């Protein structure tokens, strides 16, 4: 996820450090901005590289891990995937695939799985995360967030006009809503997930519990940096993990944006349970689609640097 500009700033800031250790996964999504830094450094074959093969996020016999390796190694087995198709014994496997043909079916399955296990998604919000590749449209992050919010507070029978609701930038937030902060500021970081504990409508302030680590009051000036987080994009979840992940692929959207790196990144966010809700053909096409190659010159420059600076003995380890 590190782009060229950020990596350049990092190298400039560390001064005369004699060893740099980077940890990453070239099978995940590259940076949003320009560059392909991590993969290019490895491709240069000028820097010592170690591949870690032990899995610690999921169990050793995890079907999630099995699917991840299928995708990574271009060895996708549809028959094995169908073995995990949702059935009466679905709770016995950590991987469930629910193939749908339309958006209405998709929304129904989202609610069914978000409410499963005594409304886990509401009462233990940090343990479950809906992931979508898209921000907009019916099955984009924005609409799924609103859909989940409406479904939740409709069930809890809360009046929109009570003190438990506040209007921010044309969006409504309720007490107990799951939210994400979108900026690095003071003790908060871009991507921090929290739950609204208290709403002060008179002063436009929210008290938010950020995963029991930070209890912060967000004032009026900072409210614009807040968004609902029942669902978020694949890019926003990169680097995070959740006990349960619901991956939603819109059956009506073009699959041109969906490739194997995006799906691999999304499914490996799940620790204990993964639910895939998608159109079968779109999912299979995405798994088999290689991402577009980024044309960069970093490999060339690294090789040139090593050629010119053999007299220096810096140690680079990956």
Automatic annotation (TrEMBL):
<feature type="domain" description="UvrD-like helicase C-terminal">
    <location>
        <begin position="229"/>
        <end position="277"/>
    </location>
</feature>
<dbReference type="GO" id="GO:0008854">
    <property type="term" value="F:exodeoxyribonuclease V activity"/>
</dbReference>
<dbReference type="GO" id="GO:0003678">
    <property type="term" value="F:DNA helicase activity"/>
</dbReference>
<keyword id="KW-0547">Nucleotide-binding</keyword>
<keyword id="KW-0378">Hydrolase</keyword>
<keyword id="KW-0067">ATP-binding</keyword>
<dbReference type="InterPro" id="IPR027417">
    <property type="entry name" value="P-loop_NTPase"/>
</dbReference>
<dbReference type="Pfam" id="PF13604">
    <property type="entry name" value="AAA_30"/>
</dbReference>
<protein>
    <submittedName>
        <fullName>EXODEOXYRIBONUCLEASE V ALPHA CHAIN</fullName>
        <ecNumber>3.1.11.5</ecNumber>
    </submittedName>
</protein>
<dbReference type="InterPro" id="IPR050534">
    <property type="entry name" value="Coronavir_polyprotein_1ab"/>
</dbReference>
<dbReference type="Pfam" id="PF13538">
    <property type="entry name" value="UvrD_C_2"/>
</dbReference>
<dbReference type="GO" id="GO:0005524">
    <property type="term" value="F:ATP binding"/>
</dbReference>
<dbReference type="InterPro" id="IPR027785">
    <property type="entry name" value="UvrD-like_helicase_C"/>
</dbReference>
């Amino acid at each position: 996820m590190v782009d060229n500009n950020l990596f350049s700033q990092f190298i400039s800031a560390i001064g005369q450090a004699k060893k740099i250790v980077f940890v990453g996964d070239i099978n995940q999504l590259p940076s949003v901005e320009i560059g392909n830094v991590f993969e290019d450094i490895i491709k240069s074959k000028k820097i010592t590289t170690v591949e870690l093969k032990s899995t610690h996020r999921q169990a050793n016999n995890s079907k999630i891990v099995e699917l991840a390796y299928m995708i990574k190694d271009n060895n996708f087995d549809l028959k094995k995937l169908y073995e995990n198709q949702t059935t009466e014994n679905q709770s016995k496997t950590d991987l469930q695939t629910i193939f749908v043909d339309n958006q209405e079916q998709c929304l129904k399955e989202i609610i069914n799985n978000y409410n499963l296990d005594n409304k886990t998604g509401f009462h233990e919000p940090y343990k479950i995360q809906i992931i979508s590749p898209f921000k907009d449209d019916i099955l984009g992050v924005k609409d799924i967030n609103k859909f989940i919010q409406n479904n939740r507070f409709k069930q809890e029978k809360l009046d929109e006009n009570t003190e438990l609701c506040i209007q921010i930038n044309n969006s409504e937030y309720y007490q107990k809503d799951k939210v994400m902060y979108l900026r690095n500021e003071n003790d908060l970081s871009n991507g921090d997930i929290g739950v609204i504990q208290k709403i002060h409508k008179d002063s436009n302030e929210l008290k938010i519990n950020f995963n029991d680590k930070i209890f912060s009051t967000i004032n009026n000036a900072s409210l614009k940096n807040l968004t609902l987080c029942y669902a978020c994009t694949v890019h926003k979840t990169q680097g995070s993990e959740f006990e349960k992940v619901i991956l939603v692929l819109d059956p009506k959207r073009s699959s041109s944006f969906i490739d194997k790196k995006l799906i691999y990144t999304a499914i490996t966010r799940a620790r204990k349970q993964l639910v895939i809700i998608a159109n079968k053909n779109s999912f299979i096409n995405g798994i088999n689609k290689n991402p577009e190659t980024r044309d960069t010159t970093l490999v060339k420059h690294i090789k040139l640097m090593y050629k010119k600076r053999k007299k220096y003995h810096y140690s680079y380890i990956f």
